Amino acid sequence: MTETTSDTTATPPAINSRPAWRSPQAWLLLLTVVVGGLVFDLASKSWAFKHIAGFPVEFTREQALTTVPLSALLPAHRPMVIIPSILNFTLVLNPGAVFGIGAGKTMFFIAVTIVAVAFGLGVFILATRERDRVSHIGLGLILAGGLGNLYDRLVFGCVRDFIHPLPKVTWWGTTREVWPYVSNVADLLLLIGIAMLLWHAWRGERAASVASGASTPQAHSG
Description:
- By secondary structure, the chain is an alpha+beta fold.
- Helices cover 50% and strands 12% of the residues.
- The longest helix has 30 residues, at 185-214.
């Protein structure tokens, strides 16, 4: 005789059912990451534009919006070598988004950044739970990176970049650089935050799949 039974105790009740927006600890973690990341980004840019060229490099928003090319606002300077062939610091003014994409569309990227920040807060409020700490840290890094570059666009009319990985390293047999982009801490925070959210989503899907398999009715022969 064959009968089908189900294990009603396989899935324990959720212990993190409270929404994140109702948790002071979740808000504290999010805001700590946002403020810490934003301060780190702006402080690093300020340090870079004071020291890398050997003297402070200053310009106004009006100059950035009217000078073509933007590089004319920067003095000729030697890159600061941090790790040979691995990492240089060199000053670049970027009128676009990450890696210089969309140059010349400052107002567009200001609007996009504001929408992205609002979206990130919406995800935190509507789609995360109290114990989703990885998501909260990832969202905090994304918000910090977005706000850091938004500050630059509003105050300076462009984004201040200085981090150049793999300088002068070229593809084998060519003169093309492996990584020709110069970026900043805000860009790094954005990429890390996105990676953390993707990892958390993957783990959530995997856990849901395992739980679904564990709760599937089993056939027993007797």
